[in-house]
Amino acid sequence: MKITSNKTVLAEYELFVDGEKEGELELMEKATKEQPLNFIYGVGMMLPKFEENLFGMEAGSAFDFVINNEDAYGQYDDESVLDLDRAIFEIDGKLDEEMIFEGNVVPLMDNEGNRINAQIVSVNDTHVKVDLNHPLAGENLHFKGNVIEVREATEKELASLSGGGCSGCGDGGCGEGDCNDDSCGCGDKEDKMGGCGCGCN
Hints:
Strand content: 25-35%
Radius of gyration: 18 Å
Structural class: mainly beta
Shape: globular
Number of strands: 11
CATH topology of the largest domain: Chitinase A, domain 3
Number of helices: 2
Order of helices and strands: EEEHEEEEEEEEH
Helix content: under 10%
Number of domains: 2
CATH class of the largest domain: Alpha Beta
């Protein structure tokens, strides 16, 4: 069976980004045979270019490709680093230090009520600096792996897409959604990337 729309795909992969030295690659995340990436093809769970590179493959197929940052998470935007009033993060006048600390990723709401992920850059007495860029913004994504299984998606899997399930949670940050549910294929990763898809957050 080939990878086409509405097929459930299981794959193992390693995701690399360009390292500090030219020609050097840095491993960012991986999905293993034991905890593979698990997604439904063609429903918006993964980056379009990621799916494009897997189209027509079968179980046992190997893949090795690069997605340029323009087709992944875009260029890094300095204007997406904001100083927010510390009071926004306080409860009864006290900062939630279990959530608000340097390096942690927290969910925020934009002016239109959309949930976005923000990484805490720094905290001081008056402000919390947050970075709204995707953790892989500005990076070219190097994927290398194998297709483990291709099958028809079940009715339950398809129903979960419209029932508030984990749409967009591919493994390791390639997804467009956002959750911490292992059923999305995040494996043993934390949801640090804003949506378990190639960027499992």
